[in-house]
Amino acid sequence: MSQPAIKINAVHKNFGALHALKGVDLTIEPGEFFALLGPNGAGKSTLISILAGLITPSSGSASVMGFDVVNQYQQARQLLGVVPQELVFDPFFNVREMLRFQAGYFGRGRENDPWIDEILEGLGLTDKAHTNMRKLSGGMKRRALIAQALAHKPPVIVLDEPTAGVDVELRQMLWEFIKKLNRDGHTIILTTHYLEEAEALCSRVGMMKQGEIVALDSTANLLNKFSGKHLRLTLGDVVLPAGIGSLMRHHEKGIYTFALSDMAQIEYVLSTLRSANIKVLDMQLSEADLEDVFMSLVGKSS
Amino acid sequence: MSGLKFSDQVIVSSFRGPWTLLKKELLRFWRVAFQTIAAPVITALLYLLIFSHVLESHVQVYDGVPYTAFLIPGLIMMSVLQNAFANSSSSLIQSKVMGNLVFVLLTPLTHLQFFLAFLIAAIIRGMVVGLCIYLVAMWFVDLQLANPWMIIAFALLGSALLGTFGIIAGIWADRFDQMAAFQNFIIMPLSFLSGVFYSIHSLPPFWQKVSQLNPFFYMIDGFRYGFFGKGDVSPLISLTIVGASFLVLAWITLRMLKSGYKLRS
Question: Chain A partners of B32 at a C-beta cutoff of 8 Å?
Answer without folding.
Answer: 92
